[in-house]
Amino acid sequence: QVQLQESGPGLVKPSETLSLTCSVSGDSMSRHYWSWIRQPPGKGLEWIGYIYYSGSTNCNPSLKSRVTMSVDTSKNQFSLKLRSVTAADTAVYFCARVEPSSGWFTPFDYWGQGTLVTVSS
Amino acid sequence: QSALTQPASVSGSPGQSITISCTGTSSDVGNYNLVSWYQQHPGKAPKFLIYEGSRRPSGVSNRFSGSMSGNTASLTISGLQAEDEADYYCCSYAGSSTVVFGGGTKVTVL
User: Chain A partners of B44 at a C-beta cutoff of 8 Å?
Assistant: First the structure.
């Protein structure tokens, strides 16, 4: 059974960097795409970006200048950094696996439970 | 990259069928047969329901079905049940290695 678990600070100050890690169990990260998706309170889902096990990435154009993603296959973890955060970045952040037989960057078959990150001083 | 368009809400009585639309453009929904659908109950992670427009993953009820026509994808829930009350999101590959979600539809079982 594949399981994903997000971890990181629940409160980040404006202008600082949001850092989250997703720990994967029940599956190897090899040859899979992994994604970050967020959901502001009471709003819809927004795709942040993906990372491949090799380290290649791509992001939502609206966030590209502020996002860095990395992967540590030895720990079965991947991470997200979002710089210069504002209140608009307050959201539940989900990590998810791209369905392995897909040759694209969607769909998402397994999701973490999500972690709320609040941007506030 | 604009969000796909979904109705804000759809409702139906138990046993009825409802359909949720998801409208994109020729750059996303209309250009790739890569629309997926997710169900999200309050406070929970989304659940994977449909992929490639109409295919169901193993374990998903056959009461959920998907279709596509032009720039619009649709999710139909037949035999509506109380447990189907949730938010539903469509998602599409949007080219250039990017993905876009719809704004979400709240389904109410009357």
Answer: 113
Please answer yes or no on whether B34 and A60 come within 8 Å at the CB atom: no
The residue count of chain A comes to 121
Nearest CA-CA partner of A22 in B13, B45, B101, B52: B45
Please give the average pLDDT of every successive group of 10 residues along chain B, which has 110 residues.
Answer: 94 97 94 95 97 95 97 98 98 94 98
Cα-based distances in Å from B17 to B34, B49, B106: 24, 16, 15
d(CA B3, CA A89): 17
Choose among B36, B47, B104: nearest Cβ to A106.
B36
Instruction: Assign A93 a pLDDT band (cuts: 50, 70, 90).
Output: very high
Q: What number of C-beta contacts closer than 8 Å exist between A and B?
A: 71
* Closest to B7 in 3D by CA, of B110, B109, B107: B107
Matching residue, tokens 């719809």: B102
CA A20 distance to own-chain centroid: 7
